[in-house]
Amino acid sequence: MDYLKKLRRKGRRFGQYAPTEQGLLIQALVLLPLVSLSLKLGGLSRTQTWLKWLLKIPSASVLILPESASIPQAQKTSELVNLVVRYNRPWATCLNESLLLEWLLHRQHIDSQLQIGVRRTNGKFEAHAWIECQGMVLNDRNRLAQYYSSFK
């Protein structure tokens, strides 16, 4: 019974989003596990090739924004991806999230770049991925480059 209450509550929240935001949420919900599976089976390069191929498929929910509106829309898209990631932890890694966010931004004709950084902490190798749009980090802290050496 609790599950049905939770599902109804989530449905009401979904209805509060604008139609374009609902479209982004649905795309993110569908694409996140597919990105995760693609990375596991084919690696980063093949996943990026597949996502570029997907960009060529026409969509009714594509927004084309003026340059000045791209940052607020990019931030909103990042918030929506964060919401999807929060409820899909098995598929949620920084790389999966970043690839998904980059794809959704490119789908809206918002220029963004995938950044992958590495660092060594207490002798342990760490890697992290994030998205930058016009020099601003969208899905993490803004001063991330101070902590990681970016190689992409």
Mean pLDDT: 85
Backbone structural class:
alpha+beta
What's the total count of β strands? Answer: 4
Principal-axes geometry comes out as globular
Largest sheet: 4 strands, antiparallel
Which spans of ≥5 residues are poorly predicted at pLDDT below 50? none
C-alpha Rg, in Å?
16 Å
Helix content: 55-70%
Strand order of the largest sheet: 3-2-1-4
User: Which sequence of SSEs, written as H and E, runs from N to C?
Assistant: HHHHEEEE
Number of helices: 4
Number of domains: 1
What proportion strand?
A: 15-25%
C-alpha termini separation = 48 Å
Protein model, in words:
By secondary structure, this protein is of the alpha+beta class. The chain has one domain (18-150). It is 56% helix and 15% strand. Helix 2 (19-55) crosses helix 3, helix 2 crosses helix 4 and helix 3 runs antiparallel to helix 4. The termini are far apart.
